Amino acid sequence: MTVKQLNRKLGLSDADLKEIREAVAKAEDKTSGEIALAVTAESSSYAEWELVAAAITALALFLCVFPMSAQIYAWLGFRFWGIEPWYLSLFHGGLISIAVVALYFLYNIPVIDALVIPASVKNKSVTNRAMRHFAESGIYCTDNHSGILVFVSWFEKQVRIVADRHISEKVSEDLWNIIADEVAENMGKGSTKEAFLSAVEKCGQLLAENFPPDGEKKNQLDDGLVILED
Quick one: 209 and 167 in the same domain? Predict the structure, then answer.
């Protein structure tokens, strides 16, 4: 999924993105903490799982066809002159190869893909991708280590809120999980803008309570919603 395709699915206009950016800036005015927002189309390609599923299905197809080998060999004899026994092996090999390729592309269709990939794998992939962006974007090295990331993974329909160590010492992870669940619920209703605005407001309140402004504030992270390409 390209960034443009993800943008269309999110349904956020330029005005919506501006409103989200302004909400982050407003929330950060009341705290020494930093809030970062990010969304990605999917947290992993899951290619290996799609390939494994295709191979298993192709093998199951072969096991269904194998008992009919005599009929297939007779059909090959009807179609070709001078048929050899190895023609049957070639037929089976070709059938499996074509099935694997066709099924691999079939399992890349998002609706089917979501059924093929184990939930535990998706959960782990989203967590890993959120932690990766947390590190790559520099959220972990803000002053006083008081940055948080609200991370949305579209394909998996999951949300993670990652808090830096200074925040984790004061704010329970359960509180962040409640906000993450609310974001996922609003996203599921198609209320993308409201999901982010609500998350920013509630995260801002928790940060303001535990990390009030400590003098002149410098903005260390992008206030806008970051749409990741991979």
Answer: yes
For residues 39 and 134, membership in a common domain is answered with: yes
Range of 80's domain?
Answer: 47-116
Angle at 179 between CA 36 and CA 14, to 5 degrees: 45
Q: Are residues 198 and 107 in the same domain?
A: no
Reported pTM:
0.82
Q: Are residues 122 and 19 in the same domain?
A: yes
Residues 181-205 pLDDT 10s: 999 999 999 889 999 999 999 999 9
Q: What is the amino acid identity at position 82?
A: G
Q: Which residues are within 8 A (CB) of 154 and not within 5 positions of it... i.e. 6 or more apart?
A: 1, 6, 9, 10, 39, 40, 41, 42
pLDDT at 216 (0 to 100) = 66
Instruction: Determine contact, residues 203/159, Cβ cutoff 8 Å.
Output: no
CA distance 203 to 182: 12
Structure tokens at 10: 């999110």
